[in-house]
Design a protein that fits this description.
Largest sheet: 7 strands, mixed
Strand order of the largest sheet: 1-7-6-5-4-2-3
Number of strands: 11
Bound molecules: pyridoxal-5'-phosphate
Mean pLDDT: 82
CATH class of the largest domain: Alpha Beta
Radius of gyration: 21 Å
Order of helices and strands: HHEHEHEHEHEEEHHHHEEEEHH
């Protein structure tokens, strides 16, 4: 935040949540060792010590075995998506995405020439994930290479998939031979009930690649994440020419994370969840307070998150200021309106925006700003045309019955 400007455009941790002490100690620990292997080019699969520590950590946190041989270190989920699509797909292959999805993932897929087809989300509004019948119909029609999904504390809706939905989607993947690209970025950040088991647990016998990151549980600047996949898949990924030339991703960052894990990360993670729970609660209270005082939020509803970083604010029709673009050219603006999260092939909408509660100032300021804006609600602002028709999905498929 600078001066009066509060950027709610990106989900990144507030400065007090960054693990300064933990990382300073990790650096001291690493650089006091004789073996400075992490200052050399690294193994294509990534730092072996981190893979070993991570295997133990994930096995304990996920509650299912995650062996070292099934782990590759990535430069975060963003880099992992790029690597997986470059290696395992061809331009023109179809990738199904959730109709409302993390707004920076579709451009990664589009840049690789993939055909993006949005799948409607479950319409009940209480459970997250692709709507199963629609998903199966799209799979039959497009024979996709991948389904990209954010199963736990979804960005931006905040909802999670039940265990049963995950199981059924995993079964569809096996039946039709597509791969689930599970972006499990918020899996470990539950502060409500324990999340359903991650897709990671389906990796050994299923058609699943699970992606994780330390961006949200330690610090985004580390640029360290992981890919959990079968060893034969990892072998293909590790044959990437850039990795052959430059070595595995980020050996120095990986060595620091490995030290953090070796010294114990579970209690830091518990503290982080508790802080997130407090901040989500503060945002929720502020929204309730403002909705009761003077009805500035009449007709508005929002999710009460049980984990992750985001609350989704759902607005009455045509409520966003008319000058907000339907397709923001610069997504990291002060707020991210709903339209930015629609998959590139989905009809845009002005029905809401996301509030990251990850920074404490996020909790009250948006409500005050919203009071000033409320005059726009209810006006019949005409939706601008100008969205690109999906390359192959029909508008009925592109429609999102959940109204995100
Ligand atoms: C759903 C989702 N995936 C991926 C990322 C980025 O992850 P990374 O920093 O590991 O590239 C984010 C960051 O906000 C996210 O919300």
């Amino acid at each position: 935040m600078s001066g009066d400007f509060l950027n709610l455009g990106l989900g990144y941790p507030a400065a007090p949540l960054l693990p300064r002490q933990q990382l300073a100690e990790a650096a001291q620990h690493r650089f006091s060792q004789d073996d400075l292997y992490f200052l050399q080019y690294g193994d294509e699969l990534g730092d072996p010590e981190l893979r070993r520590e991570l295997a133990a950590f994930l096995t304990q946190q996920y509650g299912c075995p995650v062996p070292q041989e099934q782990l590759m270190i990535s430069g975060g989920i963003s880099q992992a998506l790029e690597l997986v699509c470059d290696t395992l797909a061809q331009p023109g292959d179809t990738i199904l995405t959730e109709a409302t999805t993390y707004f920076l993932a579709p451009p990664i897929f589009a840049a690789r020439g993939l055909n993006l087809v949005p799948c409607p989300l479950e319409a009940s509004g209480s459970e997250g994930g692709p709507e199963l019948a629609a998903l199966e119909a799209l799979v039959q029609q497009y024979r996709p290479r991948f389904l990209y999904t954010i199963p736990a504390h979804h960005n931006p809706t905040g909802l999670s998939q039940s265990e049963e939905r995950r199981r059924q989607i995993a079964q569809l993947a096996e039946r039709y031979g597509f791969t689930i690209l599970a972006d499990e970025v918020y899996q470990l950040l539950h502060f409500g009930p324990q999340s359903a088991p991650p897709y990671s647990c389906w990796v050994p016998g299923g058609q699943v690649i699970s992606l994780g990151t330390f961006s949200k549980i330690l610090a985004p600047g580390l640029r360290v994440g992981w890919i959990h996949a079968r060893p034969e898949t990892l072998e293909r990924l590790a044959a990437n020419p850039t990795l052959l030339s430059g070595g595995g991703m980020n050996p120095l960052g990986a060595a620091l994370v490995s030290s953090v894990l070796e010294r114990g990360m579970a209690s830091g993670l518990r503290d982080l969840r508790a802080r997130l729970a407090e901040q989500a609660q503060a945002l929720s209270s502020a929204l309730h307070e403002f909705s009761q005082a003077g009805q500035p939020l009449e007709g508005t509803r929002w999710s009460e998150p049980e984990g992750g970083y985001f609350t989704w604010l759902h607005l009455p029709p045509n409520c966003l200021p008319p000058h907000w673009p339907l397709r923001p050219s610069k997504p990291a603006s002060a707020f991210i309106p709903a339209c930015a999260f629609r998959s590139l092939a989905t009809r845009p909408t002005r029905r809401g925006f996301v509030l990251p509660f990850i920074r404490r100032q996020s909790c009250k300021r948006p409500c005050a700003a919203w009071q000033k804006r409320r005059g726009n609600c209810g006006q019949q602002a005409k939706a601008r045309s100008g969205w690109a028709a999906p390359r192959s999905a029909t508008s009925a498929q592109a429609d999102n019955p959940a109204g995100y």
